[in-house]
Amino acid sequence: MRKNLYTKFSTRQYMLSRDFEIYYYGDPYNKKVESHSHRYYEFYFFLEGDVFMEIYEDRYPLKYGDLVVIPPGVPHHALMRDVNGPYRRFVFWITEDYLEKMAETSEAYGYVTRLAKTEGEYIFHNDRITFNAIQTKVFRLIEEIHSNRFGHEAKVALCVSDLLLHLNRVVYDQRHERSAHEERELYENLIDYIEDHLDEELSLERLAKEFYVSKYHIAHVFKASIGLSVHQYIQKKRLEACRDAIRNRAKISEAYLMFGFKDYSGFYRSFKKEYGMSPKEWQEAGCPELAE
Prior knowledge:
The chain is α+β, with helices and mostly antiparallel strands. Helix content is 49%, strand content 14%. The chain has eleven helices and eight strands. The protein has a five-stranded antiparallel sheet. A three-stranded antiparallel sheet has the order 4-3-6, with no helix packed on it. Strand 3 and strand 4 (58-61) form a beta hairpin. Helix 5 (180-196) crosses helix 7 (215-226) and helix 8 (230-247) packs antiparallel against helix 9. The protein is elongated, with a radius of gyration of 25 Å.
């Protein structure tokens, strides 16, 4: 597909031009790039391959249509699980200064970069139809960069503006079209997942990877639904599970290990804070029902 527009991959991680650069890569994965950061924004459009994007220490599996937005100073790199398979993507670099000049005409140009920079939301999923429209604008920009037609520079600037505004509009619409029903469904699915994995390591990062939404959005959903943080909720459910196990004659020394507590002292403090008595005191009192 438009192979004549491919760029030969280079491990160079700095810009040659003053404002922006865009590349269409389809090389086999034969030049490993270590974790790195830029002084500019990177927009990475994933097309094909068996790839994770590692950002800081979090790894995100990529699928066709994903947009990854990397702010300046954020360490990242792509990791291939199948180094012999195909690997295609667009990479668009743009300076903060150029984006700021665009934002002076409309704040809409900076919506998606603000999400990445201030909220740590780096991965944006797109369905095939939406991503096909994005691809059309990317190819239009690349083709214009390679052309020598009259008004070339002005047209390139218009293509950059059109692509960025389109990306911001897509992400904005996706975030604001979530209905109350969808939010409730996400919350209920999270609750079920937590219930089924209390004995495992649970974190916002793990939940975000499992449900393909940002950890900040998950935190918002919990706070809005029950007024608790995810950590507080998981702690309460683990304590309840331990309490029920003790009521069913499990040994205290075993119960806390069954549901994700790593040491007895932490379990003891949490249990006493939650229920007003130690596990031993509660057991000796005949496992009374406690007000939740």
